[in-house]
Amino acid sequence: MKNIIVYILLLLSPTLLLSNTNPRYYVQIDDNISNDTIMQSKDILFSDNSSNLKSAIIPHHTLWIKDISYDNPLIKTSKAKRLEYNQTIFYHIENPSLSLLTKLEELLPNKSDINLMGWTSINSFYYGVMFSLLIYVIFFSYIFKHKSFLYYSYAHIAIIIFLLDADGWLQKIFWNSHPLLSIVTIPIAMILSISLIAIFSRMLLSIKEVSKKMDNILIILILINIISSLSIFFISSDMANIAIQYTTFTTLVFLIYTTLYILFTNQYSSQRYFVVLWGVLLISLLVEHLRYLGYIPSNVLTSFIFKIVLFFELITISMITISQRYTQLEKEIREVKKSAKENEKKLSQLNFDEKRLQHKHDLLNKLAGTDALTGLYNRREYFNICESLIFRAKNEFAPYAMMMLDLDHFKSVNDTYGHDIGDLVLKSVTKAITEAKREDDIFGRIGGEEFAFFMPNTTSKEAEEIANSFCKLVSRLQIDTGKEIIKVTVSIGLASDANRQFTLSELMKSSDIALYQAKENGRNRVVSVEGMPR
Question: Which residues form a coiled coil (predicted)?
Answer without folding.
Answer: 319-346
